[in-house]
Amino acid sequence: MGFSAGAQMVSQFFQGWNKYFNFNKEPKFGVMVAGGTYLCYNEINKYKTSCKAYNNCPANITEPINDNNKTHVPVLLIQSLNDGSVNTNKSCSKDLRADMNDGAPICATINYFNQLTTLKKNDIPHMLLINDSDEHGIATETEVGIAFNWIKALLN
After folding, report:
1. Is pLDDT of 102 > 60?
2. Residue 124 above 70 pLDDT?
3. End-to-end distance of the chain based on CA atoms, in angstroms?
């Protein structure tokens, strides 16, 4: 589970878990709060062609290893609609430059989730929770309950 920059750390873990840790089982799931792929906020990378100029997070990619394998462990993404008041463009149709101290642009989460919907493992659904809040993080008890039940179902 990761929050904000920690969400990108979860994505990085998905990319290299078999290199970072000495075990042969892939992760069962991931939870990302207010964030997206580890390629977010990286204007200089080989995936820049999939980004609009200076967009915070590329579209059509989660992690290269998962996109290439056409599979992905289940992920729960939680995002506030107006996270830090940076999300003035709800459709992700134009470039966004968030002040890193203000919050996470919703496109980081939406772009990641849209790509996830093309990558499934064992038909377990990925989940996206968007709340109508300006909180940078989990904003409601309802989200906590939904997240708890989603994780509980995966562990059973």
Report:
1. no
2. no
3. 18
**Signed CA dihedral, 92, 15, 50, 114: sign only:** negative
Nearest to 35 by CA among 70, 76, 94, 66: 76
Classify 125 in phi/psi space as left (phi over 0), alpha (psi -120 to 50) or beta: beta
Separation in Å, CA 152 to CA 56, 72, 146: 32, 19, 10
Q: Express the helix, strand and coil content of the chain in percent, nearest 5 each.
A: 35, 10, 55
Pair of tokens at residue 21 = 């840790």
Question: 104 φ, ψ to 5°?
Answer: -115, 130
Band of pLDDT at residue 43, cut at 50, 70 and 90: low
Q: What residue has token string 């873990």?
A: 13
Q: What is the pTM of this model?
A: 0.77
Are 9 and 38 spatial neighbours (Cβ–Cβ below 8 Å)? yes
